[in-house]
Amino acid sequence: MRFERMNRLKGFEMPTAVKHGIGAVQYLGEEVKNLGVDKLLVVTDKGVCAAGLIDPVVDSLNKAGVSFVLYDGVVANPPLEVVAAGTKIYLGNNCNGLLAVGGGSSMDTAKAIGVEVAHGEPVLEYECADGKKPLSKRIPPLTTVPTTAGTGSEVTQWAVITDPARQFKFNTGGPLIAAHLTVIDPELHVSMPPLITAGTGMDALCHAIECYTCHYAQPITDSVALLAIEYCAKYLRRAFANGQDIEARYAMSQAAMLAGLSYGSESAGAAHAMSQTLGGIIPIAHGPCVATMLGPVMEFNWMGEPEKFARIAQAMGVNTFGMSVDEAAKEAVLAVYELVDDLCIPSLADQGVPEDMIPRLAKEAFNDPQTVGNPRDIDVKGYEWIYKRCFDLVEPSL
C-alpha cells in the first residue's frame, strides 16, 4: 500500500500569482482590474471590518474604480449556509469576481462560493470523496488578501467547509479552485493579537512539517516546506512577542504562503486529519487545535521518516552536530514542544475538548482522507495514543 502511494505519478501546479510587499494593498485595485473584474463580491467577516482592516482594501478598490458588494457574514469553520448566502449575493448583484479578505475561513468561503457560481450546484456536490463529482470548471477570478499568517489558503488548492448535518468538515479542491491572485501585505497583520498570531503561525508550521514528511512529498514541496519551517522557527516568537515587528510579520506572511504551496494538490497527515475532524464536531479554532496536536503527532511519526525529521531539527535551529539520525529526529519533536510552550498555546482540555471523546475522535480521524499521507502507518489505536498524549494520559515515548 505504501509503495503504491509513493510510486504514483506526481505533479505540482501553482495557479496563483503572488504579489507581496510592505504596503502592497495599495496596488490591489489595479491588480484586480488586470484580471478583467469590474464588480466584486468582497468576502470577509465582521471582525476584519471592526478592526479596520477592510478600509485600505476599500480605498484601493475605490481609487481603481472597481465596484463591489460587501459580504461580511463569514464565521469560523464556515458552514454550508454561509457559502450559500454568499453565492446568492454574488448572483443577485451580477458580480464577475471574488475578493477574500481575512483568514482561512474567508478565503475558503470565497473559494466555495466560486465553486457554486461556476458549477451551478451546492459545493457539497463537489466534496473530495468517493462518489462525488470532481471540479470541472475554473472558479470566477478570485483575489485573496490574507490578514493572518497561517492557513496558506491564499495559495492552496483546497477549501474546507463544514456540513453541520454530519458534524463534518469536508474538502473540495484542485487547481480549478485556487485563487488567481494573492496580494500579501504584512502591514495588515500587525494588529493580530498574540494568541491568533501563535495559533495561525503554528498552523503554518504544521502545514510545512506534515507536507515535508508525508507520502506525497516531492522535491518542489520539500524546498518550500523547509524554508517555511526555518521562517517559523526564527520569526514566530518575535511576531508573538511584538506585533509591530514588521520584519517578523513579513517573514511569517511568507512562511504561511510557502507552507500553503507545500500542500501542492495533495494532502498532509495525522495532525490535520485530527484537527479537521475535531473541528467539525466541536466549534474550535483550527490554529490552537492543530498547534496542540503537532508535538504528539511528531512524537508518534518521527520513526517513519527519521532523516527528514533530523533535517527539521536543523531547520528549527537545533545544532545536530555529533548526533545520530534518530537523536536529531527526536530533537525536532522537542523543539516543537518548546515552541508551543513559549507561545502559550492552550491545551485541548482548555480549548473545550473533553477527554471522554477520545474513542470517537480517533475513529473520525482515521477515516479522514489525510490519514493516507501520514509518514507512519497509523490505525485507530495509533490515533487514540496521540489523543491521550495530548491530554497527558500516557507517558512520553522519547
CATH-assigned homologous superfamily of the largest domain: Dehydroquinate synthase-like - alpha domain
The share of residues in helices is 40-55%
Distance between the termini: 28 Å
- Domains, number: 2
Specify the structural class: alpha/beta
Give the ordered list of helices and strands. HEHEHHEHEHEEEEHHHHHHHHH
CATH class of the largest domain: Mainly Alpha
Q: What's the tally of helices? A: 15
Instruction: Report strand %.
Output: 5-15%
Annotated CATH topology of the largest domain: Dehydroquinate synthase-like, alpha domain
- Computed Rg: 20 Å
Average pLDDT, all residues: 95
Rough outline: globular
For the report, how would you describe the main beta sheet? 6 strands, parallel
CATH architecture of the largest domain: Up-down Bundle
Catalogue the unreliable spans: 1-6
How would you describe the overall organization of this protein?
With 398 residues, the chain is α/β, with parallel strands linked by helices. It folds into two domains: 187 residues, Rossmann fold, CATH 3.40.50; 197 residues, Dehydroquinate synthase-like, alpha domain (Up-down Bundle), CATH 1.20.1090. The chain contains 15 helices and eight strands. The strands form two sheets. Strands 1-8-5-4-2-3 form a six-stranded parallel β-sheet, with helices on both faces. Strand 6 and strand 7 form a beta hairpin. Helix 2 crosses helix 4, helix 7 packs parallel to helix 11 and helix 11 crosses helix 15. The longest helix is centred in the middle third of the chain and has 23 residues. The radius of gyration is 20 Å and the shape is globular. 55% of the residues are buried.
